[in-house]
Automatic annotation (TrEMBL), chain A:
Highest taxon listed in the record's lineage: Bacteria
Organism from which the protein derives: Oryzomonas japonica
GO terms, molecular function: oxidoreductase activity
Keywords noted in UniProt: Oxidoreductase
Domain Pyruvate:ferredoxin oxidoreductase core: 275-369
CDD domains in the cross-refs: TPP_PYR_PFOR_IOR-alpha_like (cd07034)
Protein name in UniProt: 2-oxoacid:acceptor oxidoreductase subunit alpha
Any one Pfam family match given in the protein's UniProt record, by short name: POR_N
InterPro entries from the UniProt entry: 2-oxoacid_oxidoreductase, PFOR_II, Pyrv_Fd/Flavodoxin_OxRdtase_N, THDP-binding, Transketo_C/PFOR_II
Residue ranges occupied by any Pyruvate flavodoxin/ferredoxin oxidoreductase pyrimidine binding domain in the UniProt entry: 16-248
Automatic annotation (TrEMBL), chain B:
Residue intervals of the 4Fe-4S ferredoxin-type domain: 6-35, 36-65
Protein name from the UniProt record: 4Fe-4S dicluster domain-containing protein
Keywords linked to the UniProt accession: Iron, Iron-sulfur, Metal-binding
InterPro entries: 4Fe4S_Fe-S-bd (IPR017896), 4Fe4S_Fe_S_CS (IPR017900)
Organism expressing this protein natively: Oryzomonas rubra
From TrEMBL, chain C:
PANTHER family named among the record's database cross-references: 2-OXOGLUTARATE OXIDOREDUCTASE SUBUNIT KORB-RELATED (PTHR48084), 2-OXOGLUTARATE SYNTHASE SUBUNIT KORB (PTHR48084:SF1)
GO molecular function: oxidoreductase activity, acting on the aldehyde or oxo group of donors, iron-sulfur protein as acceptor; thiamine pyrophosphate binding
Record organism: Oryzomonas japonica
Entry-linked InterPro entries: 2-oxoacid:Fd_oxidoreductase, THDP-binding, TPP_enzyme_TPP-bd
One GO biological process term: cellular respiration
Keywords carried by this UniProt record: Oxidoreductase
Residue intervals of the Thiamine pyrophosphate enzyme TPP-binding domain: 51-198
Protein name (record): 2-oxoacid:ferredoxin oxidoreductase subunit beta
């Protein structure tokens, strides 16, 4: 039987992907350019017995998904720049209390209200550094409608597997463009369930590290009575200020992601085998980059592309390896050098990193990238 | 009929010495002994339970039959 | 017989953190008696709070407890209740947490009439941070941030709840201990969003700055300034000057949110 296909917007694909992943609770607040996610969820979730709620503000939406997740739901919220800023405190809550949830943020111009209908890639640092305190960060940056669908499924899987908030951030171009999408069959893409406790309620501790760095999470209303707080906590969930416990718990929270980068980090290598100049790109910018690499090759330049699919954790290992082989990197992005700084860190001064930065609400076009490729000597 | 007296149990490690039980006891059964409440005159107790109800510290139990 | 509070308190968690004479413990006992009188299943009861002294209450309770971020209790709780409408959801918090930083979530929870009970412990001050004025601090009162007297007018929290659409609103005081459990129990039984404001005392950060010589004086003040709604009906406006009404202030039956959302699901599935 032929697979089901559709012509969808990135935002619509995100909602459908979430539902494939088992999402049964959405809370959001209207914000351009992400509203289609809420609209599709309001239409589709109740058909499946799921819940949609439009909250009074962005913070409330973030709070509602955390509450619903603790009650056993698989949860999603969708927002954009200013909304992401407002959600940040509670994203930190999700990190410290270790509550699985997916935050879909469409990157528009900023800071503040910025350019609500223009594309940008300037929220990638906010994904890692937006909330205060040390915390793990996982950020996926899809580049097509199909990939948005698939990456949001992966985001749900990672959030359950590592018991932490996961962000998916398409730029506004990916979020609003329409492309053909082929829906996977049920079961075709793995859906990771939440690791439920194996001990009886009286023995249950929500942060019991005898089960590893990612302890099982019970749900409210299933017989397990446990305490959740945003304070630094002990394994039983109750607050503590004991130095050694706080240190160990903070380190574990970050380690559960950092020790598993190979499981989390994904990327695409395009014509890298003999590449001398490597364009490092993500999101819609990578589509221009691909065109530019092909154009450069036609002109006899050995160009290639390393496409970032997982922005956080950053693909340090891969880019460090490339830095030892190539003549230089070109880093086009719709911000003033956020990814470029990370690439420079990984390049360790071995090769030049030439950035192309646009924050004018226009995409970076292939000609700009070809011109920059030619600057690499 | 002879009056039966309750047992007033004061959990000293919970008592924070706020005086509420002492002041609002209608028959002046309790007193402060240093920083904690203490039974002074059990005979006067009318088992109204006000001290137990009002103790913010879960430190008083009035045990009746 | 002495009431067995221990049955509902997590072992080893007492003594609590509240200061000597703080009424929060009295309210917690009232909540426990209410839960006991209704025989609520603690495994199926969530107690959700924000940040502040009052918000430490859930940690002591042997229920499903959620100590959220400052002001966000109502929004977290909405998520819990929507996900599991069969759960009893009780919110606990202070006046600052609930009506300043959490004011938006509070009024919208009232508006939705979602079946949860919000117990607001109103001690008219931010206690945990050291006594800054809150939206419930009386005009003229001294707080650590109103050294010349409070220029702000306060909220009437119960009226705010009624205006925002809560369908059960009651007020009690920490002095009137026997009434607290009855108000909370009636609120929990009410189908819809219920608010129980308990006027409370903060001897440490409010009392000492506002000429209350002792905890007892603060408790007596709660007693003297409150009037039961029934009694108030027979009093003149002059007699009611400076008094606050206690008891069940408002009650109405209106469609409840999770029930209405269940109908949304039915309509969606009928298509």
């Amino acid at each position: 039987m032929a697979k089901k296909v559709a012509f969808l917007q990135g935002n619509e694909a995100a909602a459908h992907g979430a539902i494939y992943a088992g999402c049964n609770f959405f809370a959001g607040y209207p914000i351009t350019p992400s509203t289609e996610v809420a609209e599709v969820c309001s239409l589709e979730l109740p058909k499946l017995g799921g819940k949609f709620i439009q909250m009074e503000d962005e913070i409330g939406a973030m709070a509602a998904i955390l509450g619903a997740s603790l009650a056993g739901s698989k949860v999603l919220t969708a927002t954009s720049g200013p909304g992401l800023s407002l959600k940040q405190e509670l994203i930190g809550y999700g990190c410290i209390a270790e509550i699985p949830c997916v935050i879909y943020n469409v990157m528009r111009g900023g800071p503040s209200t910025g350019m609500p209908t223009g594309p940008s890639q300037s929220d990638v640092m906010a994904a890692k550094w937006g909330t205060h305190g040390d915390h793990p960060a996982i950020l996926l940056v899809p580049a097509s409608v199909q990939e948005t669908y698939e990456e949001i499924i992966r985001a749900f899987n990672l959030s359950e597997k590592y018991r932490t908030p996961v962000m998916v951030m398409p730029d506004e171009i990916v979020a609003h463009m329409r492309e053909r999408i082929v829906f996977p069959e049920p079961g075709e893409i793995e859906v990771v369930p939440r690791k439920a406790p194996t001990v009886p309620p009286e023995q249950y501790k929500p942060y019991d590290t005898s089960f590893g760095d990612v302890p099982p999470l019970a749900s409210y209303g299933t017989g397990y009575k446990f305490h959740v707080t945003g304070l630094n906590k002990m394994q039983d969930g109750f607050p503590t200020t004991k130095a050694e416990i706080v240190q160990a718990e903070e380190e574990r929270q970050v380690r559960k992601v950092n020790a598993n980068v190979d499981d989390i980090v994904t990327f695409e290598e395009y014509l890298l085998d003999d590449a001398e100049v490597v364009v490092i790109a993500y999101g819609s910018t990578s589509r221009s980059a691909r065109y530019a690499v092909n154009a450069a090759r036609e002109q006899g330049i050995k160009a290639g592309m390393f496409r970032i699919k997982t922005f956080w954790p950053f693909p340090d290992k891969q880019i460090k390896a490339l830095a030892g082989k190539v003549k230089g990197f070109v880093t086009p992005e719709m911000n003033l050098g956020m990814c470029t700084g990370e690439v420079e860190r990984c390049a360790q001064g071995k090769v030049p990193v030439l950035g192309i930065f646009r924050v004018d609400g226009e995409p970076i076009n292939p000609d700009q990238i070809v011109a920059k490729i030619k600057e690499v000597k | 009929m002879e009056k039966t007296l309750p047992k007033i149990e004061i959990i000293e490690k919970y008592c924070k010495g706020c005086h509420i039980c002492v002041e609002f006891c209608p028959t002046k059964v309790l007193e402060m002994k240093g920083f904690v409440a203490s039974v002074k005159n059990l005979e006067a107790c009318i088992k109204c339970m006000q001290c137990e109800l009002r103790c913010p510290d879960f430190a008083i139990k009035v045990i009746t039959d | 017989m002495a009431f067995d509070y221990d049955k509902y308190i997590r072992p080893g968690k007492l003594p609590h953190i509240w200061c000597p004479g703080c009424g929060h413990g009295i309210v917690m006992k009232g909540l426990i008696r209410a839960i006991d009188s209704l025989q609520l299943d603690t495994k199926n009861t969530a107690i959700v709070s924000g940040i502040g002294c009052a918000s430490r209450l859930p940690g002591y309770m042997d229920c499903c407890t959620l100590h959220t971020a400052h002001g966000r209790a109502a929004a977290f709780a909405t998520g819990v209740k929507m996900a599991k409408p069969e759960m009893n959801v009780i919110l606990v918090g202070g006046d600052g947490d609930g009506t300043a930083i959490g004011g938006n979530h509070f009024i919208h929870a009232c508006r939705r009439n979602i079946d949860m009970t919000y117990i607001i412990l109103n001690n008219k001050i931010y206690g945990m941070t050291g006594g800054q004025f809150s939206p419930a601090t009386p005009t003229g009162a001294k707080a650590s941030t109103t050294p010349y007297g409070n220029p702000d007018p306060p909220f009437d929290i119960a009226k705010l709840a009624i205006g925002a659409g809560a369908t059960f609103v009651a007020r009690g005081t920490a002095y009137h201990a026997t009434q607290i459990d009855k108000l909370i129990a009636e609120a929990i039984q009410h189908k819809g969003f219920s608010v129980v404001e308990i006027l409370d005392d903060c001897p440490t950060t409010y009392g000492r700055r506002n000429k209350f010589k002792s905890v007892i004086e603060m408790m007596n003040h709660l007693k003297e300034t409150s009037v039961p709604v029934k009694a108030a009906e027979k009093m003149t406006a002059e007699q009611l000057q400076g008094k606050v009404l206690t008891g069940v202030l408002y009650k109405e039956e209106k469609p409840e949110y999770t029930t209405e959302y269940a109908k949304v699901i039915e309509r969606a599935q009928a298509k």
